[in-house]
Automatic annotation (TrEMBL):
Organism: Laspinema palackyanum D2a
Entry-linked PANTHER family: NUCLEOSIDE DIPHOSPHATE KINASE
A Pfam family it matches: NDK
Subunit architecture: Homotetramer.
Protein name: Nucleoside diphosphate kinase
Length: 148
């Protein structure tokens, strides 16, 4: 079954949006298989965003991601990688559609509340970067019979 890495960034935690965000993924029908709240070490933030290493916004981005607690999650379900990106909305919350998490709750591209893996291969890389295999739980969602 497909899996994706989702992180509620420090601004989402500060804004008390953890429950709201988890609710949206649960309500959609996806299954939570990994969850931890953590302070992000600098090296982990740099590795996570290494594709942006050369960008002018990189130092600010790393500073922001390491600025406070973050909630790291792995969600499972058919098509979860691209569907999660739709639930999250466009990178810039000002242009993200209403009904998406960023569209409903954000205003700033540098404070866009939540991260979701952008492709299946990226998801696999990010899941192994943020979680050990023992931290992930294999379970059948009780509602699975109603969803698939
Ligand atoms: P992430 O889910 O955080 O990866 O965001 P998304 O994939 O939607 O967008 P990308 B392009 O990966 O942005 C990574 C982070 O960099 C921030 N950013 C991006 C800026 O601050 N300025 C910019 O001009 C761009 C393009 C937004 C993303 N995270 N935050 N916070
Ligand atoms: Mg990205």
């Amino acid at each position: 079954m497909e899996r994706t890495f989702i992180a509620i960034k420090p601004d989402g935690v500060q804004r008390k949006l953890i429950g709201e965000i988890i609710r949206r993924f649960e309500a959609k029908g996806f299954t939570l298989v990994g969850l931890k709240m953590m302070s992000v070490p600098r090296e982990l933030a740099e590795k996570h965003y290494e594709v942006h290493q050369e960008k002018a916004f990189f130092p600010g981005l790393v500073k922001f991601i390491t600025s406070g607690p973050l909630v790291a999650m792995v969600w499972e379900g058919d098509g979860v990688v691209s569907s999660a990106r739709k639930i999250i909305g466009a990178t810039n919350p000002l242009t993200a559609e209403p009904g998406t998490i960023r569209g409903d709750f954000g205003v700033s591209v540098g404070r866009n509340l939540i991260h979701g893996s952008d492709a299946i291969e990226t998801a696999a890389k990010e899941i192994s970067l943020w979680f050990t295999p023992e931290e992930l739980v294999n379970w059948d969602s009780a509602m699975a019979g109603w969803l698939y």
